[in-house]
Amino acid sequence: MNNQNSDQELVNFLKLNRPNIPEAAPDLELKLLAAIERNDEAETNQNYREKVSLIVSKNRSILPGFPQWAFPPAIAAMLIVFVSSYRLLVPVQLHADEKAHLEAFLVNNWEDVLHDSRSENTSDNSQTDWFNFAVSDNSEPPTTN
Asked: Which pTM value belongs to this model?
């Protein structure tokens, strides 16, 4: 029973000492709704800006997965490859005797293809005959300079 008395004393104390409740502003509800709407618009704009900046930052690199800092070294590497391979792109100038030797080789091979002399003598030729270079009387053997 002692517990009920202490509760009643607390209730009486709160009734005696309760503060006065201030009057609510008549347009308080409209102000709250306007503040919530402004906050929602600000969050929407902020989210939109974050999404746009994320998309822009991801698309800064031309190639996906290729970081922006890698472009200058890649360009330098391409220039080095181009300069070093330029020599491969320039055709080699052959001497007159090498040109004549190459021409004789091509003519002899073409004549062998047209006349098909190998099919007639297949039993006489060894397996390595196609390694041999046919030299005509007019051509000279290859020379290394």
From this structure: 0.24
**Beta carbons of 69 and 108 less than 8 angstroms apart:** no
DSSP of 57-121 = HHTTSSSTT--GGGHHHHHHHHHHHHHHHHHHHSPPPPPHHHHHHHHHHHHHHHHHHHHTHHHHT
CA distance 112 to 110: 5
What's at 127, amino acid-wise? Q
Residue from 135, 83, 68, 74 nearest 106 by CA: 135
CA-to-CA dists, residue 119 to 57, 67, 70, 127, 136, angstroms: 70, 62, 60, 13, 20
pLDDT, one tens digit per residue, over 50-109 is 877 777 665 555 556 667 777 788 889 999 988 888 777 777 788 889 989 999 999 999
**Contact at 8 Å (CB) between 144 and 138?**
no
